[in-house]
Automatic annotation (TrEMBL):
It holds the Pfam family AAA. Residues 449-474 are annotated as: Disordered. Residues 465-474 have a biased composition (Low complexity). One of its GO terms (molecular function) is ATP hydrolysis activity. Residues 244-371 form the AAA+ ATPase domain. The keyword DNA-binding does not apply. SMART domains: AAA. It comes from the Bacteria. This is ATPase family protein associated with various cellular activities (AAA).
Length: 474
């Protein structure tokens, strides 16, 4: 064979290779998607209209449960082949006609639906299902912001367009009925690939009794009346034409018990859905309010909201993000049983924003530094195992004026540690030594980190307490 013939033969073989790659042989062992749907529906799926809907990324388990509740019977099948996620349902049918994709395994995504419970959710799969005399094929896909799909997507073909529209029309009520997040404590987090909501984080509901909350007389009662009292008397209030939406601001120095008070309220409202937002995650306030509105009664907790008092949100005209928070609060209907709890260490930063948006916060309550009786109660609360005399408690309470609940907690921990180092049960001597240590000049930064004010430096006596190791520095 001369050289021109060799070139021609190579070109022929190469063209055949390209044709084979573009059109796989018909003896492909996998059944094509189109063939399976044609057999199930009894008509050409490409001739049927596709109706579609999208849902928030965190709603995948709820959408799946709603879909499965609608159908009388169903089978879920997957699709084998790469890049299938880039095609719409109609495009997949068209590509499948050339046998590029065949029936394969379903893609699943394991999602937490409770603190100790997970659910295998369909991340990419076709429901071949029926409801009455109607037959459906529904493609369910999880959100995938990495590939430009920020929402859960559901695309449906049915033996009639009316059947498909009826299915999607009933779905929101079914999602609400089967919602796995009702009555749970959740927090929103950003997605790692782009701005947007990532997976929920689920939290165990605190179990805190009223005796575990140490506040000055009358403070906790005011908060309880506004948050819990309205929930307990919602029917009376509605009958009298009064609204249920309320906002409570807890303010005061760090470490005084604002978060602890919030946790107590969570334990008192076990039927409430709770959405936790802190710091910059308050940017998800729209999603949080949407969830709270859907799953009311609900409690939206905005911790350290002073961090966004001056932050700008360019998606909302560049104004302070806190304005968006307040507008979302105001956007709820008056009968919405949704409570907002805001905490801040810097009420001075919040006050201008609140005064420009009046009516969003109904009650502002200061959570102050504990007084002397409060500091005594905190020692009992955090150190039930300490053997303390009334005189020692009185001395330590006097020494710790201007300190916080966090300070008292650390004080007791150090007393227990001193007792362990000296192989003795902690008591008066250990508590005083721990107080001297925390109040010494070398622990000034520790005191500030625990939220305490800066009292006159405490100077320990020249001789160490007998039987104790020297005070520790951390």
């Amino acid at each position: 064979m001369d050289e021109p013939d060799e070139v021609a033969e190579f070109a022929r073989l190469f063209n055949g290779f390209l044709e084979r790659m573009q059109n796989p042989p018909s003896e492909n062992p996998r059944e094509s998607l189109r063939e399976r749907l044609l057999a199930y529906l009894g008509m050409d799926p490409e001739e049927l209209p596709v109706v579609a809907a999208s849902f928030p990324s965190f709603d995948l388990p709820n959408v799946q449960l709603a879909v499965e509740a609608w159908f009388d019977s169903f089978e879920v099948v997957g699709l084998a082949g790469s890049d299938r996620g880039h095609y719409t349902f109609s495009e997949l049918l068209e590509v499948s006609a050339h046998r590029r994709y065949g029936i394969g395994a379903v893609d699943y995504q394991r999602i937490s639906i409770a603190v100790d419970q997970e659910m295998d959710c369909v991340a990419f799969g076709f429901y071949l299902a029926s409801q009455g005399d109607d037959r459906y094929v529904a493609l369910l896909r999880a959100a995938n912001p990495q590939y430009g799909r920020p929402t859960v997507q559901l695309e449906v073909v049915a033996t009639s367009k009316e059947a498909g529209e009826r299915f999607l029309g009933e779905l929101p009520a079914l999602i609400l009925e089967h919602n796995v997040f009702r009555g749970q404590v959740v927090s929103f987090e950003g997605h790692q690939f782009e701005r947007g909501v990532g997976p929920f984080r689920l939290h165990a509901r605190p179990e805190i009794s009223r005796d575990d909350v140490v506040l000055p007389d009358g403070v906790l009662e005011r908060v309880e009346r506004e948050v819990i009292g309205i929930a307990e008397h919602r029917e009376v209030l509605l009958a009298a034409g009064q609204h249920l939406r309320r906002g409570v601001l807890l303010y005061g120095p760090p470490g005084t018990g604002k978060t602890h008070t919030v946790r107590y309220l969570l334990s008192r409202l076990p039927e409430f859905t709770v959405v936790l937002l802190a710091g910059t995650s308050i940017g998800f306030i729209s999603e949080a309010c949407g969830l709270a509105r859907m799953l009311q009664p609900a409690l939206v907790v905005l911790e350290d909201c002073d961090l966004v008092a001056e932050a700008r949100d360019h998606a909302y005209g560049g104004g302070p993000l806190l304005f968006q928070v307040l507008n979302e609060m105001d956007g709820l209907t008056e009968e919405a049983d949704v409570a907002f709890l805001l905490t801040t260490n810097r009420a001075d930063l919040l006050e201008p924003a609140l005064s420009q948006r009046p009516g969003r916060v109904d009650l502002a309550v200061e959570i102050p530094l504990p007084d002397a009786p409060g500091r005594s109660r905190l020692l009992s609360l955090y150190g039930p195992g300490l053997e303390l005399s009334p005189a020692a408690v009185e001395d330590v309470v006097a020494m710790t004026d201007g300190t916080t609940a966090s300070f008292a907690k650390e004080l007791v921990r150090r007393a227990v540690l001193l007792g362990a180092e000296n192989d003795s049960p902690p008591g008066d001597a250990e508590l005083k030594a721990a107080a001297e240590d925390l109040l010494s000049t070398r622990d000034a930064l520790t005191r500030r980190l625990l939220g305490a004010t800066e009292p006159a430096p405490y100077t320990p006596p020249p001789e160490a307490t007998p039987g104790l190791a020297p005070p520790m520095s951390y």
